[in-house]
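Design request, tokens follow.
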């Protein structure tokens, strides 16, 4: 997968997604001592970037494959994206979700028309995929798929078009598809841009994989950032992280929530911990920047329920 595939993905999905805004934040710029911009994927249809990869994958299926239906695994945002894209394209979808999935994610996914199959854990959900594939369904992987990754990479194209002077990008990592796609598109156009990965403690499969030199299976996802809850990264996304990322900063849930509250109060937008963690990481690394840097925080999703927000605070 290369930048050409990402450019093709942009043309393919253009009628179905929003080109989200990239906005300068005076408040965050003052806080970090540099120029800070936010890429507002929280305003994407279904509330996260995931719709980009879902549409690129489904639009690439043949008519015969679409008739067979699709199956996906997700603790939240990928579920809604596949469900919505499937409804738009008239494809039957089954979504396997862990029982710990927040209720608002389950309800939204069902409202988009998908069938929900709850499993005890995310690992158990992945284990059920072969059963549905044996019935003929096409698996839409949440991150380890070149078409899905190319769709997510379109964010990088938009960032550099809107802010050619970009020097740094902070991107959240679940399984690594967003970071992989963005890094491919950005590095192909402007190799000197630094890309910083971010995870939370208890959902840090990429950081552990980088330390070990190979994918590591997490025994459980203990972070509140459930949408970062991939039990392991893939060899492909690990290789892209090794090649393109400056590092992966692992922040605590408390740091992510403090950043979430600050973003809500000062920028007036609601993010989920999987997105606000980018601000927490940038705050830790503020000594890496000066007044000449142009730092982009990808706010990848905003699907947070009021109950969860009140519980976190």
């Amino acid at each position: 997968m290369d930048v050409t595939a990402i450019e093709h993905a942009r043309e393919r999905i253009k009628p179905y997604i929003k080109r989200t805004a990239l906005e300068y934040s005076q408040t965050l710029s003052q806080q970090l001592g540099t120029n800070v911009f936010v890429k507002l994927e929280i305003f994407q249809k279904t509330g996260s970037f995931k719709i980009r990869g879902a549409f690129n994958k489904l639009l690439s299926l043949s008519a015969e494959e679409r008739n067979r239906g699709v199956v996906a695994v997700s603790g939240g945002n990928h579920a809604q994206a596949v469900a919505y894209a499937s409804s738009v394209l008239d494809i039957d979808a089954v979504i396997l979700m862990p029982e710990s999935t927040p209720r608002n994610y389950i309800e939204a996914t069902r409202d988009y028309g998908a069938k929900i199959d709850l499993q005890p854990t995310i690992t158990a959900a992945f284990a059920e995929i072969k059963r549905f594939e044996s019935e003929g369904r096409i698996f839409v992987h949440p991150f380890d798929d070149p078409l899905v990754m190319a769709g997510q990479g379109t964010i990088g194209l938009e960032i550099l078009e809107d802010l050619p002077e970009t020097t740094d990008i902070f991107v959240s990592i679940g399984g690594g598809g967003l970071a992989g796609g963005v890094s491919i598109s950005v590095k192909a156009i402007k190799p000197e841009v630094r890309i910083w990965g971010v995870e939370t403690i208890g959902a840090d499969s990429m950081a552990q994989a980088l330390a070990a030199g190979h994918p590591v299976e997490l025994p459980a996802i203990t972070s509140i950032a459930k949408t970062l809850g991939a039990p392991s990264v893939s060899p492909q996304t690990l290789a892209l992280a090794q090649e393109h990322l400056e590092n992966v900063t692992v922040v605590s849930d408390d740091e992510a929530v403090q950043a979430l509250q600050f973003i809500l109060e000062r920028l007036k937008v609601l993010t989920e911990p999987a997105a606000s963690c980018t601000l927490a990481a940038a705050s830790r690394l503020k000594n890496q920047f000066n007044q000449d840097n142009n730092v982009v925080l990808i706010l990848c999703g905003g699907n947070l329920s009021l109950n969860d927000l009140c519980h976190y605070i």
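Comment from the thread starter after seeing the answer: thanks! The two ends are 41 Å apart (CA to CA).
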